[in-house]
Amino acid sequence: MKVLVTGGAGYIGSHTVRELLLREHSVVILDTLEFGSKKVLENLGVLDKLVVGSVSEIRLLDRLFEEHQIEAVIHFAAYKRGNESINKPAEYFANNVGGTFNLLDRMSRHNIKYFIFSSSGGVYGNPQVVPVTEDNNVLRPESPYGEGKLMIEQSLPWYERAYGLKSVSLRYFNAAGAAPEGQIGEDWNLTNNLIPLALKAALGLSPAFSIMGTNHPTRDGTCIRDFIHVSDLAEAHITALEKLKNDGESGVYNLGTGQGTTVREVVEMVKRVTRKDFPVKELPGRPGDPVAIWADSSRARHDFGWQPRYTLEDMVRTAYEWHRKSSQ
Length: 328
Ligand SMILES: NC(=O)c1ccc[n+]([C@@H]2O[C@H](COP(=O)([O-])OP(=O)(O)OC[C@H]3O[C@@H](n4cnc5c(N)ncnc54)[C@H](O)[C@@H]3O)[C@@H](O)[C@H]2O)c1
Known about the structure:
Layout: E1 2-6, H1 11-22, E2 26-31, H2 38-44, E3 50-52, H3 58-67, E4 72-75, H4 82-87, H5 89-109, E5 114-118, H6 144-163, E6 166-172, E7 174-176, H7 194-202, E8 209-212, E9 224-225, E10 227-229, H8 230-247, E11 251-255, E12 261-262, H9 263-274, E13 280-283, H10 298-304, H11 312-326
Parallel strand pairs: 1-2, 1-4, 2-3, 4-5, 5-6, 6-11, 7-10, 8-13
Antiparallel strand pairs: 9-12
Helix pairs in contact: 1-8, 3-5, 5-6, 7-9, 7-11, 9-11
The chain binds nicotinamide-adenine-dinucleotide.
The site of nicotinamide-adenine-dinucleotide (NAD) has 28 residues, from helix 1, strand 2, helix 5 and strand 7.
């Protein structure tokens, strides 16, 4: 299948490009490069597949859909910092929601039928019940970022009804780790995710790691999250796409390990894997951060036969190997 991967020069997008190539699909990558990097595409040998531009550009999308026999879109392109979105709702709604509706519009006009949407655990907000299944909580996002993801999810059935556009929305939580062979990983200059920042402190490239919030009602006072290896996520996107093409059932799915890990436990794991101690600062919690969230992914297991293969230790180890190599 020829797949347009939006945001394919970013973290999860590039790992998905890698997995698509391993499964002998072909790709076109659309990315503004605002948070993506040419270098990762170079490392994957697909720099020539990159088109630099935005999902908000009508003429550019028309040209791509006219020039390439694109059958499906995997849509990662978005801004992703939930906390930041609280102070920048206009930017988040314009880029994430406006951009996606533009993309869906052009897909409908060019009769592209398959859409895999990178949604987020952010749609749950601060859940009342954990682990979260796709429907055991009232969906109450705590940020414009999460709200935008939910708006898109909820619009997709209307696109199917009117234009026959089939879709799968994948809700995931905290992506982590790097490709097992180590050719790509997460750039810590472009992220505020926990594991890269803790590794930066472990490698002595930042003075300390900061924990945001230590007085929460959890087992050690820090937030609880569901970390999932980026290669497991990449595999899930492609499995979902292949399944969608074969039997055409649209849906919404959680992708998590089902394990809730506290921030302190992650810090301990980073210290254990790297065998390095580093200073940890304790700062107040941030608005919009849920206290505890982890996922029940039985639906994805049942419908796609997908289940995560990597542990938290694997996530830290693969990320550590990547950062050690790329920071030399
Ligand atoms: N990283 C996580 O833990 C996580 C968790 C849940 C959901 N998600 C979602 O997964 C997707 C990918 O996340 P990521 O961690 O790889 O982020 P990332 O920032 O590394 O990748 C996003 C890419 O999209 C590009 N981009 C942004 N706006 C664009 C636009 N309008 N047109 C074209 N390209 C654009 C950026 O340059 C970047 O390369 C996002 O939609 C994010 O909301 C991420």
